[in-house]
Amino acid sequence: MRFDPRTGFRYPGAGWRQPDGSMTEEHLKPEARAQWSSEPAFVFSMAAAAVGLGNLWRFPYMVGENGGGAFILAYLLALAIVALPIMMLEVAAGRMRQGSVVTTYRGITRLGAIYGWAVVLLTVIITSYYLVITGWTLGYTVDAIRLSVSEFSDFTAGYNSVWYFAIVTGLAWIVLLRGVAAIETFSKVLMPLLALLIAGLVGFAATLPGWAEAREFMFSWEPGALANPTLWFFAFGQAFYTLAVGQGYLVTYGSYIPRKTNVPRAALIVAATETSIALLAGWMIFPFVFTHGLDPGAGSELAFSTLPIVFDDMAGGWLLAITFFFMFFAAAFSSCLAGLKVIIAAVEEELGLSHARAVAAVGLLMLGLGLPSALSFTPVELTVAGMPFLDFMDQFGGTNIVVASGVIGAGLLCWVLPPGKVWYALGAKSRWWSWRIFIVGRSLPFLAAGLLVWRLIAGGQ
Description:
The protein has helices at residues 25-32, 39-65, 69-97, 101-108, 112-145, 152-155, 160-178, 181-205, 211-219, 229-242, 249-254, 263-291, 302-312, 317-351, 355-375, 389-416, 419-426, 432-459, and strands at 2-4, 9-11, 35-36, 383-384, 387-388. It is mainly α. Helix 7 packs antiparallel against helix 15 (355-375).
């Protein structure tokens, strides 16, 4: 195996020739496809790709808007029973086809390319506002260094959202143009440090007057709350969002997995890491929310409205603010790079563009599509259906379309692929996970239809 320091992946060597010296397409394919250098490299990179915004930013605000403890319970059940098996399925599919998300689904079924492009479009939507939020984390990092971290309303009083969105998009363009070798190494350092810092902030939050109220909020719920179909719909959306189901990340990252990787083991580690950080983020934020009388249902700005207060209350808070916001930015930036890799891979392979042209085209696309989300937190206050444009995009794309995409993708894979191929691609000795995957995947479209009918009936009462 040959290690390419520019890309951070390993390539098979030159020993793929047949006895007569010729090289068939099958022999050429392994050399053409890069690989993560190891299973831990995949685990850390995949965790970093999803942890940044899906858990530190989105999970607390979804908990705050959807009833606290009831949402957390529904989320954990949805993640363990449904989202985790589908995560393994998508990684295995990427490993089998070793191509972009469009290539993968086209190779599975004749109409799969249509779904593959739909997944790319979904990733375009999500990444467009991801870049805006990542801009917020960069802006807060800069303000922390200047010792002038302000409340979110002050931060967005001007056009900071637009300027930092443009800067982050430019940084992503530069990194992706030059290669992403640093992601592996940086992720291995970032994830443990970020988890330790959050755990320390949770320890400090436990000393606050609002700790008891936060504990009750996160561990209890009103009678009948779990009978609300909308709660379950958002819980499934967050579970899919947390594990990047239906968004192309798993298929794309899975296409680079080394041969000896045990997919169920790797997926379990990633899921446990992401869920733990999500729960810790809730324990970090809500005690401050209740201590200072803030609104837990503030929406997408919840973390950015709360964290400045967190560090203002702490001795040496300025140093912690710099450290935390920088690592928050790094984790969020990794999420953006992962989404952009999905889009760029599809554009390169399907449109036949060079890597540089694909990166440039996707960068310009992001600048155009992300601008409305950035403008929603400026004096323009761009809104849709009575909510900021960014919040609308997150609820529409981050919940509705993510759930639909995950359900359709699981149905396609499980009704077309032979179980034996999936078991082989999983790299696990036992067939237990492959059978569980197919039971969940084949029944998921019917369960989703039932949930939709339940939601419509409940909404009409």
